[in-house]
Amino acid sequence: GLSQYSSDPRTEWDLSTFSTREQVLEAVRNLRYKGGNTFTGLALTHVLEQNLKPDAGARLEAEKLVILLTDGKSQDDASLAAQTLKNLGIEIFAIGVKNADEAELRQVASEPLELTVYNVLDFPLLSSLVGKLTRVLCTRVKERSHRETTDTPVNTGPQLSPTDLKISAVTSKSMHLAWSPPLRPPKKYRVVYYPSKGGTPKEVVLEGAESSLQLSNLTSHTEYLVSVIPVYDSALGDGLRGVTSTLPLSSPRSLRVSELSHNSLRLSWKAAQGATHYLVLCSAAPDGAED
């Protein structure tokens, strides 16, 4: 499976899309580069929520490996999202090119770092990693598949998944989220929210006993995407998603002009809720317009 990311991750193909090596290579040849920002944390969350699901071809009994390829420093918190994957038994390999931040690669990658972190100066040099990386990946899969574990890397179902996300009390700067908890309370909730047209994703981590959250300091008149993701010790429930727009800032109303003289006039209006100052602009009417 493969996903590209900038400020908005995009699945190019799922684990179950192709069944032969030739089909995958052809898809790679036809792949178009996606430019933009570098929200690595959001991309890792996308892979976890969208690509490592049974309906995307992820078999519960199969080992889960994620290879991150990046040429820049993340503009959001990649280490927190990476830790969620690692806590669920998903192994991360981090490959940096050009301007990648090696310290960040080492934070994101799984142990042992000498096998999971790679960094090259330019894209053509990636070819030098193929042989070693292939051997390491195959060896890790064999090692992990022979190791007994009770962890279920990704899980779904009503027992692990909250339902009925409600977004209410929406203002120009805030909104309230509430949901019905799953039958089995999670250890934590990750609430991720960001503007749908691009912007820095923000995240709040709640204790599993909580089932509501007030989001504040939002941008007015903006559509937000919201995800509520339950996290367990050894499983991840399906996330809830919602979309809503904050209200525009309120405007003053009912402008009136009074006490006219040859060089002055008085203005009055109904106040705009939340306004701390007003800017009043005055200019002479153009020739021919009503005074």
From TrEMBL:
The keyword Secreted applies. The gene is Col20a1. The keyword Secreted applies. Coiled coil: none annotated. Residues 1-133 form the VWFA domain. Keywords: Extracellular matrix, Secreted. Its main location: secreted. It comes from Cinclus mexicanus. This is COKA1 protein. Pfam families: fn3, VWA. SUPFAM superfamilies: Fibronectin type III, vWA-like. It is found in: Secreted, Extracellular space, Extracellular matrix. Residues 161-250 form the Fibronectin type-III domain.
